[in-house]
Task: structure prediction
Amino acid sequence: MGGSQAPIGVLALQGDVAEHRRMLESLGAPVVEIRQCKDVTGIAGLVIPGGESTVMDKLTRIFGLYAPLRDLIAQGMPVLGTCAGMIMLADRLDDAISGQQTLGGLDVTVKRNAFGSQKESFDVALNVDDIDGGPVDVSFIRAPIVTHVGAGVRVLATLPTGEVVACEGENILALAFHPEVTGDTRLHERFLDIVAREQFQADIHCES
Ligand code: GLN
Result:
């Protein structure tokens, strides 16, 4: 991969930014951390990490990232969202807190904190459609689930108990869990395949 390759942006306001950065760089992808609008210029795709969606939502608005990111996602920028990142990509939430917005882009409804306290965090080996080489080791940490999947969105993985925990829209890969914590690179590779296919380059105008 050449040095002129457009970087992947990792939204770096809050959450497990370093884990995603490490994973992407281990796969040869250049990374830029996104903290303000001007960081977004030229990115080929975006990763929205796990963390806390209510906080991430507030911070994207405070730092002037909400509208640019929402618009770029609507234009087809490739995005990988994990956990809180999946929540940020959902067009609808079952249980948003008062005033909570999402960036949207994926025609799904998501329920936050869908697992009770007993199962709040757990690791599983999950079968994911189109991912070769056996189940993917992933961590669920105060994870959401997808409660409604719109037309044009594909379910990629469900738990043995039936909950939808991974799905894919046109250019969006949304995961309820954290592959970046367990170190299995296959879902990040799938995202980088979407990035390579799309050849997107974010072209935006930032105020001041
Ligand atoms: N429960 C968190 C939220 O609502 C997500 C947790 C996570 O990203 N690990 O955003």
Notes: The chain has one domain: 8-198. Residues 50-53, 83-84, 87, 112-113, 141-142 surround glutamine (CB under 6 Å). The chain has six helices and twelve strands.
